[in-house]
Amino acid sequence: MFIRSINSYRRITLGFVIIASGLFLSGCVERPVSVANSATVKIVSRACQQGDPMTQTTLYFGLNRPNGPVITAKEWQSFVDNEVTPRFKDGLTVFDAQGQWLGHNGLVAKEKSEALMLIHTNTQESEQAIGTLQGKYKTQFAQESVMRIDHPVCVGF
């Protein structure tokens, strides 16, 4: 009986150790992570089951000028044709967006916007191109900011 109790105890202890180790080690699996460093976002690469690891960046461009007319469709398209496309020759996607927030005065503010989606490799060249686009838009259209969202993605054709 004493030997049987020791064997049962060992099995229970071994089972507990295996389960605890599995739970502990599951925290070591690499997951896609975004690490914010001030206004710059760096995407940590991950392995893809299919396709290649790339970054999906979506930029949001407000169309209201603080002290002037709304940015027209013609002005926006000219910016895309002359500034965006030459920097991202492999392609891009543009879609209409509607921004909304609660102002300091308690009123809901709305702004028509354009969203620009880029799929690119995470390189210094692409980072510089995106930063240049943000800067040029802010300067050309008197904007305070251009929102940027990055996601790691797997891309296949």
TrEMBL record:
GO terms for cellular component: ribosome. It comes from the Bacteria. The keyword Ribonucleoprotein applies. The keyword Ribosomal protein applies. Pfam families: DUF3574 (PF12098). Keywords: Ribonucleoprotein, Ribosomal protein. This is Ribosomal protein S3. The lineage of its organism: Bacteria, Pseudomonadati, Pseudomonadota, Gammaproteobacteria, Enterobacterales.
